[in-house]
Each structure stands twice: as C-alpha cells, then as structure tokens.
Amino acid sequence: xxxxxxxxxxxxxxxxxxxxxxxxxxxxxxxxxxxxxxxxxxxxxxxxxxxxxxxxxxxxxxxxxxxxxxxxxxxxxxxxxxxxxxxxxxxxxxxxxxxxxxxxxxxxxxxxxxxxxxxxxxxxxxxxxxxxxxxxxxxxxxxxxxxxxxxxxxxxxxxxxxxxxxxxxxxxxxxxxxxxxxxxxxxxxxxxxxxxxxxxxxxxxxxxxxxxxxxxxxxxxxxxxxxxxxxxxxxxxxxxxxxxxxxxxxxxxxxxxxxxxxxxxxxxxxxxxxxxxxxxxxxxxxxxxxxxxxxxxxxxxxxxxxxxxxxxxxxxxxxxxxxxxxxxxxxxxxxxxxxxxxxxxxxx
Length: 348
Fold this sequence. Notes:
By secondary structure, the chain is of the alpha+beta class. The chain is built from 7 helices and 10 strands. Helix content is 28%, strand content 22%.
C-alpha cells in the first residue's frame, strides 16, 4: 500500500481529491502558524485559491455546492458513560445539516468531485450547540507544516492544462510517506450512488469528558444504514446526488449510526494523516435521522458556520493544531461570503 501510484489517471485522481482537501488547508495555514511571513495572510491565500479554483461571490469557499437538510439525533445511551454532553442522553436532539461536495464551484456536477461532506448542528435542551463537519476521506495526506507547504506547491495548476501536474503529484506522494493511508484510501475509493450511503468521518480527534472529568480521546464517523450501491459509470444529471437525496426522502427518513472510535494509549491524537487500527473499541452512540431537504442553499443551514470548535460541555478539542486552523478558516470563509452576499443584496 506504500508504493507510489502509477499512471496519469491515478495521479490526477489523487490530485483532485488532494486539491479539495487542500482547499481546507489553504485558508488556515497562516492562522495556525504553519507557514509564516507577511506575504502569507489568510486573505491572500484564499485569494490565491479563488484565483485558481474560481471566484463565486456569496458562496462558501470550499464545499460550495450543497443543500440544507433537517432531522434529529436519537442517542442509544451507550455514550453517556463517556461524556456528559446532553446530546448523548436527551431523547431526541434537533439537527440542522448540510450535504455538499468539495470544491469552490457551486455549479460543478455532483458526481465530478470525489470529496463529499456532511456537516451537522445538534441543539440540545440545555441551550448548548454541537457542530461537526465530516468528510468521506478518513484521513488527510499531510501531518507537518512542511508537508502542507509541499502539497500547496504540488497542487498548483499547470498553466498549460489548468490542472495539477501529475508528475508533481506523484513526486509529492513519493516524498511524503505519511500520505500512505490517504493514498490507500484514494486508490481503493469506489464512489457510491448517493449521499445516503456514504460514510463520513471527523478526521480530527476530540476528547469526550465523563462525569468524573476523565478524558476519552475519540474520533467519530457516521456509518450509513442505507446499503452501498456503486455510482453509475455515466451520469448526465449535474444535480444527481441532490435529486437522489430528495427522491429518497420522499420515501422516508434516512439513517446513519454515529460511531465513536476510542483511542488506545499511543494512538496519534494530533496527526490527522495517521489512522487508528481497525480493532479499536467503538461505541454506537445513536442514530442520525435525516427527515427532509429544506432547499439547496436556502434552508436553515445557509447562515451556519460549521466550526468544529463549537462544542458542548462534555466534548473538548484534542491538541491537533488543524482543529484551531479549521476554525480560523471557517471564520474567514463565513465572513467573506457574508460580506459578498450583502453587497449583492441577496444570499445564494
């Protein structure tokens, strides 16, 4: 699994996924202190990304194309001994969510982008809020500041083609063995035919705090209860995933299991490129139930900033620096698109 990928098609697929995941990083590198100097501000980096990926005023700067949904979380009770968060004991927790594809283009075809995301907000009856943004890749490709900067360079579009250079992509992955898990996932990735049967991961680690104050390091994932079916080889509908989700919800709610994966001593809590072993203990924390689509970009999720550091009592961030960095990036994106939307007189 650690051998370099071969062939331009695989390299370009890695480039496509890597570039979308990098868009997350591009906005927060400076804010997290990863790469410094007065020439690298968050604003300038996002300006550069928009110049490469396209400028779409009023839209999110990554995961620009999505749709708002709503439903609830029904806890199983099994996580109550691990965390005092009310979400794990309340009978039913209202949820506002957003399904999206990666990238800055809100008009991209749904099936043209490999990265899918699900962001949700849980609002409990004690007045607290928990927001989490999850993606289908379980890991990132990089874990160090130098690796991040190398990936920035490797993903720069070739002026002749407008796409990343496959040779530079292969060179990047060959030079960064920490990307092995990401490469393995990408090489084996088979897209499903729906948001409904996609699995989503927190990627970063967090800390569950129990009633005694003991911390339990954790990553979480949403496991679909809808059976997997492969994406058709040819799809003409640019709204394929959105239309599919809307159609499925006319037949009834869709469900995912929220699984909490607990770390063992020695498991990396600050390295989102390193997976934890599959045999780690996990807990079925309950079911996420999505009941309806509000509207593409017009529902209650439109004005939500799904900052991963908006956490309730009983859940704390780990020491992963990317968490603070994501928070800074989400803030910059939210503020920018809000200004753009107000200037245009309406929000998309």
